[in-house]
Amino acid sequence: IIFYMNKKYFIVLAIIGLLVASASYAHGVDLGVEAGTLPTSPFYFVKEWRREIVRLFTFNPIKKTELELKILNEKAAEAQEVGELAGDNVESIKKALENYRAAHDRLLTRLRALKETSENPNIDKLLNSLTEKVLKHEALFANLGEKFKEKSELKNAIGKAKENLSKLSEEANKK
């Protein structure tokens, strides 16, 4: 009887834990990366310098494209974090979205420059990762769009970010 009671309580506690975890998860999309230093920080330039140095010493075209995808994902995490922390500070969110757009453009340029197709296992892995991240970024921008639906200037910037994601998907389909 004691075992049955403990099992019953365990199941109830597990269900409550899942409900609490899903409620806390609902506020953001898990991008698999920490935002770290945000564009609102005066020390953000150090993070950008580090990214530029890594870009400089990455030579393989596929690795460069993977790096740009990683940076795009980091910029998405930064935009999400700024969106959660900035409140009504429209300029901070616009800056984070502009950083995301610039990273998107770099990734799109790298993706277009790749000569190989999905028959290469490295390209196939890259395209799978790209597809996964595009889906997560779409969910992120849907959340941000819902949160800031009353702010027209942010609504436009979020809409442009969503449009850019479709360009990435189109380019990936070509490969």
Task: Give short descriptive properties of this protein.
175 residues; 0% strand; globular; mainly alpha; disordered N terminus
Explain this structure.
The chain contains 6 helices and no strands. The chain starts with a helix and ends with a helix. The protein has helices at residues 2-25, 44-56, 61-85, 90-113, 121-147, 152-174. Mean pLDDT is 82; it is low at 1-6 and 18-26. Helix content is 78%, strand content 0%. Helix 3 (61-85) packs antiparallel against helix 4 and helix 5 runs antiparallel to helix 6 (152-174). The protein is mainly alpha-helical and 175 residues long.
What does this entry show, briefly?
The protein is an all-alpha fold and 175 residues long.
